[in-house]
Amino acid sequence: MSQEGNVTMEKIVSLCKRRGFVFQGSEIYGGLRGTWDLGPLGVLLNNNIKREWWKMFVESREDMYGLDAAILMNEKVWEASGHTGAGFSDPLVECEKCKRRFRADHLENKEVCSECGGKLGEERDFNLMFETKVGAQGDVKSYLRPETAQGIFVNFKNVVDSMSPKIPFGIAQIGKAFRNEIAPREFLFRVREFEQMEIEYFVKEEDWKEKFEALRADIQKWHAHIGLSSENIKEHEVPENDLAHYSKRTIDFEYNYPGKGFDELAGFAYRTDHDLKNHMEASGVSLEYVEPDGNKFIPHVLEPSFGVGRAFTAVLAEAYTEDEMGGETRTLLRLPAYLAPYRVAVSPLLKNKPELVEKARNAFSDLKKEFGNVAWDDNGNIGKRYRRQDEIGTPYCVTIDFDTIEKDDTVTVRDRDTGEQVRVAVGDLVNYFREKFNS
Ligand code: ATP
């Protein structure tokens, strides 16, 4: 939608900073490349995305189990998964003159440095894992996990033993992942610390195709649910010769990012029994699934994997709109109500009239009790408040004015997208919004 207009990444980044969504990491010390901090409104949007994902993929289903594994894991996990080897490296080249480093597969000119014109050195593998030391002696090597998936595989047996799930079933996890990307760039798109929402879905080998299609449809539903329009999503079928050696089929879900074009938003791979088999061999612990009739096998795995930051960026890009209202250009975020940082903002028409403020305070606290993320806004005049709330995507503004206290106990409810205003009785407000948000 917004891609037809004049949305740019610069405008989104600027709005994010100005309105408290995203700040540069360690900013007052000059920053730390590849890190970003979520501000007060960013946390709300980010949490809303994760909550909706969890609701859709875990809570609303009977075949999904949640997990929250440790970020630090035994180094043997990463040896078994192949992450310590070349499998988790990117090709790096360094300029012999200015010493800048580049990801070779992202370079157009492989000979000459794009920054200083110097000669580029030999290509070498660069492992993306952050190494760390554990314990007071510092003698136990570990890594900051580069994906949440392995935490799921190593807990497969624990979940099976404690929950007795019937196959097919999935284990889902949301959490931080760390990759020492050679060239972090493009806002939240490629960073060194990010969040993933991942599912390992365990199936019988003969069922993988059917379940692949079912999960693929669920992923499409998810992207529609967070407001991404189908013309801005492309499913890229990874060609056979580009597939990881263990994968028989992978689809990258790509989003049409402003100024960048289509690039990965989420990945979906059929990983065969590769992961459980490797961990079984390396740990010596059986990771077979036993059916009630005694039949034993290593389940095959389907893996939908989502980056929260990339979803966050896509949601903002899709919602960002500039239009004209009352003869003025305005910026608004057309966020679905369940993603908006605040669902409602409440204002007294004038902040120096105690009777208006008291009435507004009461409405505010009733709404806040019911919906949580409700804003109190009494800065500037009412027109400015509406613009400010439009810009952060608040779907409704409630204003308490003189009619409320002198006439009929009704308030103005203003709609973000249309600017339309209706009068609603104070006593009906909670129900009014309950209905709006449920529809
Ligand atoms: P890319 O090809 O863009 O590097 P990938 O194929 O290595 O991504 P996966 O390992 O499949 O990514 O990770 C799953 C998801 O995690 C990606 O679809 C993306 O949303 C997110 N992700 C991966 N790396 C990063 C990163 N450095 N910054 C932000 N998100 C990331």
Automatic annotation (TrEMBL):
At the top of the EC hierarchy, this enzyme's class is: ligase
Q: Which cellular component terms (GO) are annotated to the entry?
A: cytoplasm; extracellular exosome; microvesicle
**What positions does the domain Aminoacyl-transfer RNA synthetases class-II family profile occupy?**
10-336
Q: Which family does it belong to?
A: Belongs to the class-II aminoacyl-tRNA synthetase family.
Top-rank taxon of the source lineage equals Bacteria
What Gene Ontology biological process does one annotation of this record name?
diadenosine tetraphosphate biosynthetic process
Is Transmembrane helix tagged as a keyword? no
Supply the EC number(s): 6.1.1.14
SUPFAM superfamilies the UniProt entry points to: Class II aaRS ABD-related, Class II aaRS and biotin synthetases
Per the UniProt record, the source organism is Candidatus Zambryskibacteria bacterium CG10_big_fil_rev_8_21_14_0_10_42_12
Sorted alphabetically, which NCBIfam families does this protein's record hold?
glyS_dimeric, PRK04173.1
Q: Which UniProt keywords apply?
A: Aminoacyl-tRNA synthetase, ATP-binding, Cytoplasm, Ligase, Nucleotide-binding, Protein biosynthesis
InterPro entries registered for this protein in UniProt: aa-tRNA-synt_IIb, aa-tRNA-synth_II, aa-tRNA-synth_II/BPL/LPL, Anticodon-bd, Anticodon-bd_dom_sf, Gly-tRNA_synthase/POLG2, GlyRS-like_core, tRNA-synt_gly
Report the protein name in the record: glycine--tRNA ligase
CDD domains noted in UniProt: GlyRS-like_core, GlyRS_anticodon
Question: One short Pfam family name for this protein?
Answer: tRNA-synt_2b
Q: Which GO terms describe its molecular function?
A: ATP binding; bis(5'-nucleosyl)-tetraphosphatase (asymmetrical) activity; glycine-tRNA ligase activity
Q: Which residues form the signal peptide?
A: none
